[in-house]
Amino acid sequence: MTDAELAAHIAHVAGDLLLSLQRSGLFQGKALGRAGDRTANAFIMEALRANRPDDAVLSEEEKDNAARLDAERVWIVDPLDGTREYGEARTDWAVHVALAINGKPAVGAVALPGLDLVLRSDRPQPLPAANSPLRMLVSRTRPAAEAVAVAERLGAELLPMGSAGAKAMAVVRGEADIYLHSGGQYEWDNCAPAAVALAAGLHVSRINGEPLVYNQQDVYLPDLLICKTEHAGLVLETLQTL
Q1: Reduced to 3 states, what is the DSSP secondary structure of residue 106?
Q2: Which tens digit of pLDDT belongs to each residue from 4-41?
């Protein structure tokens, strides 16, 4: 099984486990979110140990191991991205499974279990045409000020959505055109989405235009821009004027 096949398979099975928990009726709200985080993480960690025992792992739900800094291959996972949305039984939550090689998001799979979808870096789909007017994704609970300002300058519609993975995949799927985030994230929030978006031919960078770099000592990665390449220059130029 290739790395990409493994990432997609693990993300899919983790998503099925999360759906089973959600449907069980045994947990509600925040308790459901906690149970989902723990269950999905336990499965993903065991699956990676069994199938890629020599690789390092960075997971939101695991204590960080500094030994990963010396590894060329590091799996970066978010077992449940959008815990609040999952606990509310919405569909805008995700499972992220990525492999960073020498700091680059080389392989990724993002499962959207509520939509019965797994988007993967080894099976990029043709990008749909841009929306008119442009649609910009923002957090449904705390929209980033920069994103709101850029949307106003570009005449773009705001599209509130939950998890980072769901928002990034909305651009890949053509539901939206721009995902601009400046409110703080960590490597596990965007590594898998970045890998899938790059494979699809989208522009992916920090909001200053620099590339996203992974497996850093400080895993805080506060901002990113995912959009169609034809919009990247305008968005980055607009950001510089704010």
Answers
A1: strand
A2: 999 999 999 999 999 999 999 999 989 999 999 999 99
Domain edge (last residue) among 92, 120, 148: 120
Give the Cβ contact number of residue 42 at 10 Å.
Answer: 15
CA-to-CA distance for 87 and 155, rounded, in angstroms? 33
Chain length of the chain: 242
- Reference 134, options 172, 91, 168, 179; nearest CA is 179
Angstrom distance (rounded) from CA 93 to CA 19: 11
* Residue stretches of the annotated binding site: 60, 78, 80-81, 189
Annotated binding residues for Mg(2+): 60, 78, 80-81, 189
> Is there a single domain that holds both residue 139 and residue 112?
no
171, 235: one domain = yes
pLDDT, tens digit, 9 for 90 and up, residues 135-166: 999 988 778 888 889 999 999 999 999 999 99
* Tokens read off for 111: 């499962």
Domain of residue 81, CATH code? 3.30.540.10
Statement to judge: residues 204 and 168 lie in one domain: yes
